[in-house]
């Protein structure tokens, strides 16, 4: 029975999902096509709100552990691993080539292990923007209304309404609820 379950899991969550993403690659990278991709991927997600937009070239692993709110946009060439659990709240924008990982390789007996991984969830709160080429690591909470600067590596929690950036990302400025940068 366990073998049957693994085969079914592979067919539903790996083969079928990636086949859908591959077929959707012929669509241009415009708002209407991104909405179509979001609709096509929605059934595979744990939860998904309305108006989910997914651009071309996005890789999603362990999609069944991911929850997406309303009006979320994930830009092209983003890589997401949901193994440890990922929640993206409403109004979040994830810019191109961002990496979001909920796992970390273990270091055992002086060697990096690909077999045993450490897992922890990631939460990206409502109205946040993750700028291009950023990395979000396991166990992180990005607060409400945050902006993460381009090329940042978020390794610890970011408080609500904070502009953070750098490697590792650190708070740079506190944002007002309706301010602009």
How are the secondary structure elements laid out?
Blueprint (H helix, E strand, L loop, with lengths): L1 H23 L6 H11 L5 E2 L4 E2 L4 E3 L4 E3 L4 E2 L4 E3 L4 E3 L4 E2 L4 E3 L1 E6 L2 E9 L2 E3 L4 E2 L4 E2 L4 E2 L4 E2 L4 E2 L7 E4 L4 E5 L7
Parallel strand pairs: 1-4, 2-5, 3-6, 4-7, 5-8, 6-9, 7-12, 8-13, 9-14, 12-15, 13-16, 14-17, 16-18
Antiparallel strand pairs: 10-11, 18-19
Helix pairs in contact: 1-2
Write a concise keyword list for the protein shown above.
2 helices, UDP N-Acetylglucosamine Acyltransferase, domain 1, 19 strands, 181 residues, alpha/beta, 5-stranded parallel β-sheet
Brief account:
The chain crosses the membrane at residues 12-30. The protein has 181 residues and is α/β, with parallel strands linked by helices.
Structure commentary:
The chain is α/β, with parallel strands linked by helices and 181 residues long. It has a single domain (2-174), classed as UDP N-Acetylglucosamine Acyltransferase, domain 1. It has helices at 2-24, 31-41; strands at 47-48, 53-54, 59-61, 66-68, 73-74, 79-81, 86-88, 93-94, 99-101, 103-108, 111-119, 122-124, 129-130, 135-136, 141-142, 147-148, 153-154, 162-165, 170-174. The protein has a 7-stranded mixed sheet with strand order 2-5-8-13-16-18-19. A hairpin with a 4-residue loop joins strand 18 and strand 19 (170-174). Helix 1 (2-24) packs antiparallel against helix 2 (31-41). The protein is globular.
């Amino acid at each position: 029975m366990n073998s049957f379950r693994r085969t079914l899991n592979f067919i539903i969550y790996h083969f079928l999902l990636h086949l859908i993403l591959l077929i959707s690659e012929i669509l241009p990278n415009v708002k209407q096509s991104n909405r179509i991709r979001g609709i096509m991927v929605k059934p595979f997600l744990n939860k998904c709100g309305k108006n989910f937009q997914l651009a071309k070239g996005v890789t999603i692993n362990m999609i069944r552990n991911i929850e997406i709110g309303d009006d979320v946009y994930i830009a092209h060439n983003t890589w997401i691993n949901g193994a440890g659990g990922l929640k993206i709240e409403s109004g979040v924008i994830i810019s191109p080539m961002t990496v979001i990982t909920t796992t970390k390789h273990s270091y055992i007996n002086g060697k990096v292990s690909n077999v045993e991984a450490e897992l922890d969830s990631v939460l990206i709160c409502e109205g946040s923007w993750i700028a291009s080429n950023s990395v979000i690591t396991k166990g992180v909470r990005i607060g409400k209304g945050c902006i993460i600067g381009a090329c940042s590596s978020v390794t610890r929690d970011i408080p609500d309404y904070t502009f953070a950036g750098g490697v590792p990302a650190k708070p740079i400025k506190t944002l007002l609820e309706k301010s602009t940068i």
